[in-house]
Design goal:
Layout (H helix, E strand, L loop, with lengths): L2 E5 L7 H12 L4 E4 L9 H4 L3 E3 L19 H6 L8 E6 L14 E5 L10 H5 L6 H21 L5 E4 L2 H11 L3 E3 L20 E4 L8 H11 L3 E4 L5 H7 L4 E5 L3 H10 L2 E4 L7 H8 L4 E4 L16 E2 L4 E4 L4 H11 L2 E2 L2 H6 L6 H18 L24
Parallel strand pairs: 1-2, 1-4, 2-3, 4-5, 5-6, 6-7, 8-9, 8-11, 9-10, 11-12, 12-14, 13-15
């Protein structure tokens, strides 16, 4: 069976690319389709596959500023030639789910998230102070047409798989579709608690982008005068460096080996924003590090809130309810009254490995192929919501 896997773009190794690697292990002969490919930016596992790119890949400036080409993504993704394939799987957090499978070919979408910067996180990216005026004006002009396309293109997906309960709910809210939850693969074997007491610093890591609200963590630890290490790269790195006080280090991207070391030593991982799932959260748990997190989003699938007021903790982290400095400060103080057992925390991460992901995704593919040409949820292979109107009334 010829399988086409459609991924938004290949410009670096993040959570979506770890999922892509596992999908390629499940389908070792699959061919890759993507909007653009920065050669050498992803793992050898991915680079070794046949990779087909869109017209955007050949446009001047697209590799350095591909986000500015967002209005062209629907046009480019719909023109990918997937003829001759028997199964299409999209790995989508932006436009990949809009790829058009040939007539009679099933399309399964592994949804990392609906486009957050078009839907519930629009202000986090494009409010005043978050983006330059020309960018805000341009997005105001194109956001609504892109939302209509995003909802409409979801109708051509035959089966949605979401990476968390939170994303499953968002797929229902924005696309009017059900989804099965299959948590992404986490290489938990790479991480383990370090013998002895943990160090005194807190850690936050991941892409430094607006919706993660790392600015709240920086401000909170400035106020408390407690040590915080910020690891990761992204468009917010310079702004966060400017906000950081003497106890906050914004290190930027670091090597994988240093991430493993920091997670093994840190007192806790701090998560001030809403994560779609949070691979870094599971990596922290596998390292024996508890989590201080906003109690929303994908973190609810992996972290249990410690309810004890003091002493031994019955859980793997502490939640706070509002993304603001005061609530995070209070959560850290509550956290420091508790005692977490690193081995118990690490044990909670064991169910998130790659073998589990591959087995569950194989089962979902089998369900789709077994029910074909019907959708497995019983809905017709046609738009089910007014918001997901088909192009010209037909698929």
């Amino acid at each position: 069976m010829r399988v086409a896997i459609v991924h938004d773009w290949l410009t670096g190794m993040r959570g979506g690319e770890l999922v892509l690697e596992a999908l390629l292990e499940l389908f070792p002969q699959a061919e890759l389709f993507t909007l653009l490919h920065e050669r050498g930016s992803v793992s050898e596992v991915i680079e070794s596959r046949p990779i087909h790119t869109s017209a955007i890949d050949r446009m001047p400036g697209s590799h350095r500023g591909y986000r500015f080409f967002l209005p062209l993504f629907p046009w480019a993704i719909e023109r990918m030639d997937l003829s001759g394939f028997h199964l299409v799987i999209s790995s989508s957090h932006c436009a990949a789910k809009g790829a058009r499978a040939p007539s009679g070919v099933p399309h399964i979408c592994y949804c990392h998230t609906p486009m957050r910067y078009l839907w519930d996180q629009y202000d986090a990216y494009f409010a005043a102070g978050r983006a330059a005026m020309p960018v805000r004006v341009a997005m105001a002009a194109v956001a609504q047409p892109l939302r209509r396309w995003d909802a409409r293109s979801a109708a051509s997906v035959d089966h949605f798989v979401a990476n968390s309960t939170h994303v499953k709910d968002r797929v229902g809210r924005y696309y009017g579709r059900d989804a099965v939850v299959v948590h992404p693969p986490v290489n938990t074997e790479r991480f383990a608690p370090r013998p002895g007491p943990r160090d005194g610093f807190y850690l936050t890591l991941g892409a430094l982008v607006p919706y993660k609200r790392i600015d709240i963590a920086v401000a909170a630890f400035n106020e408390m005068g407690k040590p915080l290490v910020v690891v990761g790269g992204g468009i917010d790195q310079d702004r966060l460096s400017a906000l950081a006080g003497p106890t906050v280090q914004v290190r930027g991207p670091v090597a994988d080996e240093e991430v493993v070391d920091l997670l093994a030593r840190c007192r806790a991982l701090v998560l001030p924003g809403v994560e779609d799932f949070g691979i870094g959260v599971v990596e922290a748990l596998a390292s024996g590090a508890p989590v201080v997190a906003l109690g929303e989003g994908g973190v609810l699938d992996s972290v249990t809130n410690a309810t004890n007021g003091s002493g031994p903790a019955e859980g793997t982290g502490v939640f706070f309810s509002t993304p603001c400095v005061g609530d995070l400060v209070a959560a850290v103080r509550r956290f420091e009254q508790l005692e977490f057992d690193s081995d118990d925390v690490a044990a909670s991460a064991r169910g998130f490995g790659k073998a589990r992901f591959i087995a569950e995704m194989r089962a979902e593919v089998d369900r789709v192929l077994g029910a074909w040409p019907r959708r497995v949820d019983g809905t017709p292979r046609a738009p089910v919501l007014g918001a997901a109107m088909s192009r010209g009334g037909t698929l």
